[in-house]
Specification:
296 residues, alpha/beta, D-Maltodextrin-Binding Protein, domain 2, 5-stranded mixed β-sheet, globular
Length: 296
């Protein structure tokens, strides 16, 4: 896993060992994020942010099946993970309590992130959402707030050491993800599934030889299945994880970047990482540089 280039070995190895040791990545906690007081004039009248702040409600699309990033079990009201912590910061900046019922956490799989934004079903998407030119053509995206890379997950007793050993073999990934595209580009046979949970099951039952997506996600699944699954091989892509918003709400870009930059500067981004992906003791990386917002 490469969270930033300069700390790849420390962050990747430390995270892999710590998550595998805890064996319960889905239970990653979170930092305390409280709603801010929204002063009059903070948001331009008529802006998406002003409308959300005035309504006092928001719907955020997140993953429910990715330990350490976006995970929710049947007993929990609020999902946990690094994506969730970043979302809470944005929600709180609107004056909405992120722990309250005024936030709807909408499960969002890889294949419906763009449709949910286009249809107005969600106001924001923070769901291991890789920033790409193709996506930016139809929805708004900014960030990144995390950089990772694609790797391989196989059964513990597998001889596979990387993508080179899977040429012509079926490798599972989620429909609508950049990961499924990369699988094919790298000479493997893409086996699509509706979500990554299904891919994990397919690897465990032998339906496919492996699954592939961001290393951060795979480490979480390996930690949930100690002695059964392992992450192998170097990264073969760079995934820039960012925030999605409706394309017509271009003003959200500067607001999102401002909240992210503030979290970088005041240390809350680092605290969120430490409380989720770094829970087991992995060194916290430097936050990535943010993209500039394009003119509306």
């Amino acid at each position: 896993m490469r969270l930033i280039r300069t700390k790849a070995a420390v962050a990747g190895v430390g995270l892999a060992l710590s998550m595998a040791a805890c064996g319960d990545a889905g239970s990653s906690g979170g930092s305390d994020v409280e709603a801010e007081d929204v002063e009059s004039g903070k948001f331009e009248e008529g802006s998406a942010m002003a409308e959300l702040a005035d309504a006092g409600e928001i719907t955020v699309g997140v993953k429910f099946d990715q330990p350490g990033l976006g995970f929710k079990d049947a007993a929990s009201d609020i999902p946990t993970g690094f994506d969730i912590e970043i979302a809470k910061m944005l929600v709180a900046d609107l004056g909405i309590d992120p722990e309250s019922d005024n936030v709807t956490w909408e499960e969002t799989i890889s294949d419906n992130r763009e449709p949910y934004l286009q249809e107005g079903r969600v106001d924001l998407v923070l769901a291991t959402y890789s920033i790409t030119p193709e996506r930016r053509a139809i929805v708004g995206q900014t960030g990144p707030y995390l950089i990772t890379g694609q790797q391989i997950l196989v059964k513990e007793d597998s001889d596979v050491q990387g993508k080179e050993d899977l040429q012509g073999e079926e490798v599972c990934s989620a429909e609508g993800s950049t990961s499924i595209e990369n699988v094919e580009k790298e000479g493997m046979v893409p086996a699509s599934a509706p979500d990554y949970t299904q891919c994990v099951e397919d690897v465990l039952n032998g339906s496919v030889a492996a699954m592939s997506t961001d290393g951060a996600i795979l480490l979480g699944y390996a930690a949930e299945n100690p002695g059964e699954l392992k992450v192998v091989g170097p990264e073969f892509s760079e995934e820039r994880i960012g925030v999605g918003y409706p394309k017509e709400n271009a003003e959200m870009c500067e607001w999102i970047n401002g909240v992210l930059q503030e979290s970088y500067d005041d240390g809350s981004w680092a605290k969120a990482f430490e409380a989720t992906l770094g829970e087991g003791g992995a060194e916290t990386p430097e936050p990535p540089a943010l993209d500039e917002c394009q003119a509306a």
